[in-house]
Design a protein that fits this description.
This protein starts with a helix and ends with a helix. It has one helix at residues 2-73. The radius of gyration is 32 Å and the shape is rod-shaped. The chain has 1 helix and no strands. It is an all-alpha fold.
Length: 74
């Protein structure tokens, strides 16, 4: 009987440790999720900025080409 009680106490201790580890893992997962969302948003904006710069450069090039072609015809 004493052996069974010791086993139950040992099992309870292991379950408690496992529960603590699971809580720590959950906290880490939540922190990772938050960090990943921030990083995704950061690079989304960076991508938007690059597209805007590219489109701006393209528009400037088109304006220069049209301006040059109009000046040549005068």
């Amino acid at each position: 009987m004493r052996v069974n009680v010791d086993k139950v106490l040992e099992r309870d201790q292991k379950l408690s440790e496992l529960d603590d580890r699971a809580d720590a893992l959950q906290a880490g997962a939540s922190q990772f999720e938050t960090s990943a969302a921030k990083l995704k948003r950061k690079y989304w904006w960076k991508n938007c900025k690059m597209w805007a710069i590219g489109i701006g450069v393209l528009v400037i090039i088109i304006i220069i080409i049209i301006g040059e072609s109009l000046c040549v015809h005068r």
